[in-house]
Write a structure and sequence with these properties.
single chain, mainly alpha, 17 helices
Length: about 400
């Protein structure tokens, strides 16, 4: 813990972590908010899954592009514009009862305009700490973001079930505007200038670690999205049990991130962490009868989530130039969002046909493949046990031959 205490004492680190967590807090609320709202209005988890999928696909398409635009137009310009557009789109879904195709279109636009907070802050971090502190900072960030998934589901479930689903969505919009304004106004966002990348768009995916992180992120978040839908369907939308179970699950991830964040990252690091997720998700299928039983089994799955994300962030950072970091994280985010879209949609249809356990079948399958892929690709996984995870400098010394 002394490592994390030292990090938080570094000027600006605690502030930027708090600001970006607040800005991203609605991300832990919107999925459940839309799920509960669309199911209440249209009486179909499948329809809700389609809406969530449309939003995630919009985010997936926009992620690398808005991230790269930050190097062209500047971070603040891109963040202010997307914050305004996304807030308006999300609010309209709550305020107006519309046919599912129209709602999907608005959700898609909301995804396209989602502020690229995560790529921005991942790009800022290497400029705030020294090289030895960067991997622990990624781990601390991945662990701290679980606060979003601990408090977010509880808050949105309580508001949506006890007050109303419209109020739940509007509360998410209010927090999005408040947190986004705080983050964008932070001095660190104004001080860091992302150089314009000299590589063509998408070429960063040619680096095996970036592609690996994108694929594994897709599978990990696909599993998480299916679990979220399955938990909500298992306990219904009339009480707080679903939110409590999801919060406990995220608490397991928080504990795992803090406990394992200091472990050196070797070629098998991602596979080991994904194995923990797979085991936890699989045994959860046998604990659906009670909220406490499901909570205990999901804690096991949660122990691998934040550590896995921290490894993915670190191997990307260590594998690309600083000018390419924002786009690289945008592609990783795209993989995660496509996973969320497919996970939510597949889980929704399986819930309608097979009941809540169908969502856990999907989650287990995602997690299993998420273990197999990094296990097979361990040769392309960076070994960071004897090096730091700082990005490759854009300006390197040019050797000169003596005359």
């Amino acid at each position: 813990m002394s490592t994390y205490t030292s990090l938080l004492k570094t000027p600006g680190v605690a502030r930027i972590i708090a600001a970006q967590l607040t800005a991203r807090f609605p991300f832990g609320m919107l999925s459940l908010a839309f799920l509960l709202h669309i199911e209440r209005v249209h009486h179909s988890y499948g329809a809700a899954g389609l809406v969530l999928g449309a939003m995630s696909i919009g985010q997936a398409i926009a992620g690398p592009m808005t991230s790269r635009l930050m190097g062209v137009l500047g971070m603040r310009t891109v963040l202010w514009t997307t914050l305004a557009l996304c807030s308006a789109a999300v609010a309209s879904i709550g305020l107006f009862v519309l046919p599912i195709p129209v709602t999907m279109g608005i959700a898609f636009f909301a995804g396209l305009s989602m502020p690229p907070i995560q790529p921005a802050v991942r790009t800022i971090y290497p400029k705030m700490v020294n090289s030895r502190q960067l991997t622990p900072l990624f781990s601390l960030d991945a662990s701290a973001q679980e606060i979003i998934w601990i408090a977010g589901p509880v808050a949105i479930t309580f508001v949506s079930t006890q007050i109303g689903t419209v109020e739940g969505i509007l509360m998410s919009v209010a927090i999005m505007l408040l947190g986004g304004t705080w983050f964008i106004s932070s001095p660190e966002v104004g001080r860091v200038r992302i150089p314009r990348s000299k590589r063509r768009f998408g070429s960063v995916l040619q680096r095996p670690p970036v592609l690996l992180a994108t694929v594994v992120g897709f599978l990990l978040i696909g599993s998480c999205a299916a679990i979220e839908a399955g938990v909500v369907a298992n306990f219904g939308n009339q009480g707080p049990e679903a939110g409590v179970v999801l919060a406990i699950w995220s608490l397991g991830s928080l504990v795992g991130g803090l406990a394992f964040g200091h472990i050196p990252i070797g070629p098998w690091a991602t596979a080991r962490r994904m194995l923990i997720v797979f085991v936890g998700v699989t045994i959860s299928m046998f604990a659906l009868a009670t909220w406490w039983g499901l909570s205990l089994t999901l804690i096991i799955a949660g122990l691998g989530i934040a550590p896995a994300l921290a490894v993915l962030f670190s191997i990307v950072s260590a594998s690309v130039k600083f000018s390419d970091t924002a786009e690289a994280y945008g592609w990783v985010g795209t993989g995660q969002l496509i996973g969320a879209a497919l996970g939510s949609a597949l889980a929704g249809f399986l819930i309608d046909s097979q009941g809540p356990i169908g969502a856990f079948w999907a989650a287990s399958a995602f997690a299993l493949v998420g273990f197999i892929v990094p296990a097979l690709a361990h040769r392309w996984h960076p070994d960071l046990r004897n090096r730091d995870s700082s990005p490759i400098p854009d300006t390197e010394p040019v050797p000169v031959q003596p005359s």
